[in-house]
Amino acid sequence: MRTVIHIWLLLSLLSANNNLDYVFEYFINGIPSDDPIEYKIDSNISYVPRMDTSLYWIVPNKELPADVNTLKSNNNVAIELFENRIFIAFRSSASHFAGSSTKMIVMSSKDGKIWDKEDIIEINQDIREPLFAKVSNRLMFYYFQAGTSSMKFEPTFVYMKERVELGKWSEPQQVSDVESRVFWSMKNRNNKIYVTSYEGEHYKIFGNSDINIRLLESTDGVNFNAVSTVPQYNGGISEVAFEFDKNGDFWAVSRNEDGDKSGFGSHLIFADKNEIDKWTVPESAMENIFMSPRMFRHGDDIYLISRRNKGLLSFGFMPTIFPMSMQRIANWLKFTTSAKTTSLYKINKDKMAIEYLLDLPGTGDTAFPAIRRLDAHSFLIANYTSDISKKNRWWFWGQIKPTYIYMTKLTFEPIN
Q1: Residue 27 to residue 45: CA distance in whole angstroms
Q2: Which tens digit of pLDDT belongs to each residue from 78-111?
């Protein structure tokens, strides 16, 4: 094992969970549902979120299959429960940036101790944004194929592979008909697969931002249709996390990194359950930006996990009197040279605000959270991070240095 596995990792491994028994105990009565509509939670009781103090490390892990060789940068995580197994997929490459060395590793375990190789996707190009979805009794895995330039963001199409049996998956099938379309957040809700997507030139320096955000839906996991003929948003937004509240209304959080007439930062978005294609997006973006956002619901409370900037300046700190190109460059440079962590937030629906709660383990290059419900009050979280002893490591340094993957548990406990 590489010498980059520092003392902090060895110590954390000694104190970490030796297995994932707390996941597999739920399989006795079948795989728990991930849909919050299946769980009744007393609204008269107040709950507080608690993170498990121990971590289960996927990378590094001495029990990985002998033919699964991880590289320096391990990130972009997805998890799912299927056929009494836990599945994980993650990107492994020479660095966070695009390159031909990239591979997508898919594994599963029936006991949380020994892992089996399910698939390794290598195409001599970059591969990102892994997503799992279950349709009826089928498990599907999605990813997008990109380029090899470390200086460009070059998505092509989204592909899907369906699991046949242990270690055997179907041939990749293209499931997006628009080049440059990226699937971001995917959920099985209301007996449909919903996914937020974005398409267009991301990270361009000059000109107006022209990224289209669309909400797609599918009943078979293969054919994805837009919920409307027009995009839900056009501008500087890329990633959009979402969840439905107990009334069926739609809530979302955006990542507005490219900037537009609303500014730079993020938006808290709402849509009525009867018109989920018509998003209400604030005219002005909030100053904080929530990168790699994921959302989930506990009772009628909606939560967000995302990357948090620890720097003193907000993301869109540049005055708007400067040309958009200068604003972008300054904002991006300042942000990439600031420390980061992964954090949990709560959506205040009455105040239309996003409220910070607590930090998850994470520093440097961190935050691509995967969230899978275990029961009414418990959630399995997978994430990646740089060396967690480097609390104030810049995002950029984290992107070119080793990153690791862990799982932990988030539980909502009643307040006495």
Answers
A1: 27
A2: 999 999 999 999 999 999 998 999 999 999 999 8
What is the structure's pLDDT at 4? 40
Checking phi first, is residue 207 left (phi over 0); if not, alpha (psi -120 to 50) or beta?
left
Residue 271: its H or E element: strand 268-271
What is the spatial distance between Cα 261 and Cα 240, in angstroms, rounded to a whole number? 18
Rounded Cα distance, 38 and 17, in Å: 29
Asked whether the CA dihedral 383, 342, 125, 193 is positive or negative, the reply is positive
Kindly compute the dihedral angle of the four CA atoms of residues 210, 222, 79, 249, in this order, to the nearest 10 degrees.
60
Burial of residue 53 (CB within 10 Å: 0-12, 13-18, 19+) is exposed
DSSP helix/strand/coil, 128: strand
Q: Where are the alpha helices (DSSP H) in 276-356?
A: 324-336
Q: If you write DSSP's letter for every residue of 23-35 in order, what string do you get?
A: HHGGGGGSPPP--
**What is the chain's percent helix, strand, coil content, to nearest 5?**
10, 45, 45
Q: Extract the tokens encoding 204.
A: 């361009």
Give the tokens for residue 308: 């948090």
